[in-house]
Design a protein that fits this description.
2 domains; single chain; mainly alpha; elongated
């Protein structure tokens, strides 16, 4: 983008309407460079992939709705309230993970699908361990460490979901979805 601007301003190069040109006039970010590839129209998704995307999107949209309802009705004033909230949140997420695991991804997405489910399993396992420690004793520093680790897992899960082509699942895993 900077090089395009320098070429246009310093050297007087004209902007181009050719999407394969480095001087293409609508290149606004690095993401737009995908248009410079040879394949402008990717192959249509297979029926299995479309089915997986449809079903997983429904599961993730349901998860977002359930977690937002839980947040809306949860008043966290005490540590007991926090524990109750986390237990219910974990139950909802376990249910969504089971539903996602029950649908088979397309052949071309099997590895990415397994990776996402394994990462989700590790994130939920971390949540269970932390929840168990909350019942006994967990220092403020350990709690903050768990929050950071949980956010790291969630953003990695969002990346996994987007790699699979599921924006609703990306939204479900994104912790910023639930911030008012």
């Amino acid at each position: 983008m900077v090089a395009k601007s320098i070429r246009a301003l310093v050297y007087g190069y004209a902007l181009s309407r050719n999407p394969r040109s480095a001087m293409f006039d609508t290149i606004l970010s690095v993401d737009d460079l995908d248009f410079m590839t040879e394949e402008f129209r990717p192959l249509a998704a297979s029926g299995t992939r479309r089915s997986w995307l449809s079903r997983s999107s429904g599961i993730c949209e349901q998860g977002v709705a359930q977690l937002k309802k839980l947040i809306a009705r949860s008043g966290i004033a005490t540590s007991a309230d926090l524990i109750a909230y986390l237990q219910e949140s974990l139950r909802i997420q376990d249910d969504r993970r089971s539903e996602l695991a029950a649908i088979a991804p397309a052949r071309e997405d099997k590895v990415a699908g397994r990776t996402m489910l394994a990462r989700l399993g590790r994130a939920l396992s971390l949540d269970r361990v932390t929840l168990g420690k909350l019942d006994s004793s967990l220092s403020e520093q350990a709690f903050k460490s768990w929050l950071r680790e949980n956010a790291r897992f969630r953003f990695a899960l969002k990346a996994d979901a987007l790699e699979l082509g599921s924006r609703p699942c990306g939204r479900y895993f994104d912790p910023t979805t639930y911030v008012s």
